[in-house]
Write a structure and sequence with these properties.
With 152 residues, the chain is an alpha+beta fold. It has helices at residues 15-33, 38-47, 128-133, and strands at residues 7-13, 53-58, 65-66, 70-78, 81-82, 88-99, 105-107, 109-110, 116-122, 135-137, 148-151.
Length: 152
């Protein structure tokens, strides 16, 4: 996989934020503005509480990344460089992306140059490195921490 498809995660949303803020906001935006990406919306509706998954906020996408993108590695990052000693095998798939501006909605891809959110499922369960090293987002807005994790 080209390194440009990597996804740099800044934080994962707590289940309370997901249930009480993200999902209600998404549903409100859909009701008010309609569905921008029907395939992404259907995928979101089918998988919004899928097992072994988390909602993430991530850094800008280096290129357009489609839903369904699969990754096989996870690693800590420092100054946007992968820390070689932290690389682990991690089979994961992006279930859905979400546009953040001007209103949160399911999207079929992460747009190049944008900070967005995503729902990612992990084949063998959520890796402990995420809980140990990545910021848990418990309130909005939030400020990204210095620690980042990369899927590639």
């Amino acid at each position: 996989m080209a390194e440009q498809n990597r996804l740099v995660l800044w934080g994962w949303f707590s289940s309370e934020i997901v249930k009480n803020r993200l999902i209600p906001d998404i549903e409100k935006n859909i009701m008010k503005y309609g569905v921008s990406f029907p395939v992404a919306y259907q995928t979101f509706q089918k998988n919004k509480y899928v097992v072994n998954s988390l909602y993430f906020h991530h850094s800008y996408a280096e290129c357009d990344i489609p839903i369904g993108q699969k990754y096989t590695k996870i690693a800590l990052m420092e100054n946007y460089g992968i820390m070689p000693d932290s690389i682990q095998t991690c089979h994961s798939e992006v279930i859905c992306f979400f546009t953040c501006n001007p209103r949160m909605q399911p999207s079929e891809y992460a747009m190049r140059g944008h900070h967005e959110s995503s729902l990612i499922q992990f084949e063998q369960g959520i890796p402990q490195i995420i809980y140990n090293e990545l910021l848990e987002i418990t309130e909005l807005p939030f400020n990204p921490a210095k620690k980042q994790i990369c899927l590639y």
